[in-house]
Structures are given as structure tokens and as C-alpha cells.
């Protein structure tokens, strides 16, 4: 039997990071290898309550940046499916935004951010 190329069956998900001591959010883990098709949970912790909205973004292997979810209230959830991964974001507390990344087949970088407000257009306003 031909040896299975093990490295190809894993997908690296990097998690954006800056100087942890200076940043308003902290992401865990910093990077993770996921078996192709498997799931991983990422955690983002908010350090400054002046910025109550928390968001996850993905940057795909082509460099495109997309917002996955922006959640401001405890209990809020948002599911998004993009090529190469399915996401479920949950605002589990005032200080934590969790991201389940499932069915992963492509490398990507995930960024957590916080903001005072959200710039996403509410559905009742047309652009
Ligand atoms: C992963 O894929 C399976 C099969 O398509 C689907 O049922 C499941 O909902 C997906 N997971 C997530 C978190 O979307």
C-alpha cells in the first residue's frame, strides 16, 4: 500500500496574534493543526469592556479577508459556511467569543477583533 501523505491530511489554522500584553483580545490557541474534515474550537477573550462587540474574521489562502460573525450579546450565535470550513460563533459570556470551525479542508488564518459598535448594516436598512 502506498503510504498515505499524512501532512496533506492536516490543515493548519493560524490565529492572528500581536503582543498579548498590549492587545484588547487574546486568542487561544495561537495555531492549530486540524485533521482534514475535523473540527476545532477557538477561544477569544476580551480584555477591555469598552469594546463590547466581538468578531471573528477569516483570511483564506488567497489572502481574502471576510467577517464570520459579529456578536454583542451573551447567548448570540451565528453560523456561516464558506469554502473549506463551516463556522459556528457563540458569544458565551461578556468576555468570550467562541468559534467552532468544522469540516475543515483548507488552510486559513482566523482573527478575533473587538469594537465599540458594529458597522454591519442591519437587515432593515438597504444599502
Ligand atoms: C459539517 O458537515 C456535515 C455534513 O455535511 C454537516 O451536517 C454539519 O452540519 C457540518 N458542521 C457544521 C458545524 O456546520
TrEMBL record:
Protein name from the UniProt record: Immunoglobulin V-set domain-containing protein
Pfam families named among the record's database cross-references: V-set (PF07686)
Protein's GO biological process: adaptive immune response
Signal sequence bounds: 1-20
Listed Gene3D superfamilies: Immunoglobulins (2.60.40.10)
Source organism of this protein record: Sus scrofa (Pig)
Alphabetically ordered keywords of this record: Adaptive immunity, Immunity, Immunoglobulin domain, Receptor, Signal, T cell receptor
Keyword Nucleotidyltransferase annotated: no
InterPro entries given in the database record: Ig-like_dom_sf, Ig-like_fold, Ig_V-set, TCR_variable_domain
Keyword Oxidoreductase on entry: no
Residue span, Immunoglobulin V-set domain: 27-115
GO annotation, cellular component aspect: T cell receptor complex
UniProt GO MF annotations: peptide antigen binding
Amino acid at each position: 500500500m502506498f503510504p498515505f501523505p499524512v501532512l496533506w491530511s492536516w490543515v493548519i489554522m493560524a490565529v492572528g496574534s500581536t503582543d498579548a500584553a498590549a492587545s484588547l483580545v487574546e486568542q487561544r490557541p495561537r495555531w492549530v493543526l486540524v485533521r482534514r474534515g475535523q473540527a476545532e474550537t477557538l477561544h477569544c477573550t476580551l480584555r477591555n469592556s469598552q469594546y463590547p462587540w466581538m468578531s471573528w474574521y477569516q483570511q483564506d489562502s488567497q489572502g481574502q479577508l471576510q467577517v464570520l460573525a459579529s456578536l454583542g450579546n451573551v447567548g448570540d450565535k451565528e453560523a456561516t459556511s464558506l469554502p473549506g470550513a463551516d463556522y459556528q460563533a457563540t458569544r458565551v459570556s461578556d468576555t468570550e467569543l467562541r468559534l467552532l470551525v468544522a469540516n475543515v479542508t483548507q488552510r486559513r488564518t482566523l482573527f478575533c477583533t473587538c469594537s465599540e459598535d458594529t458597522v454591519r448594516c442591519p437587515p432593515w436598512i438597504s444599502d
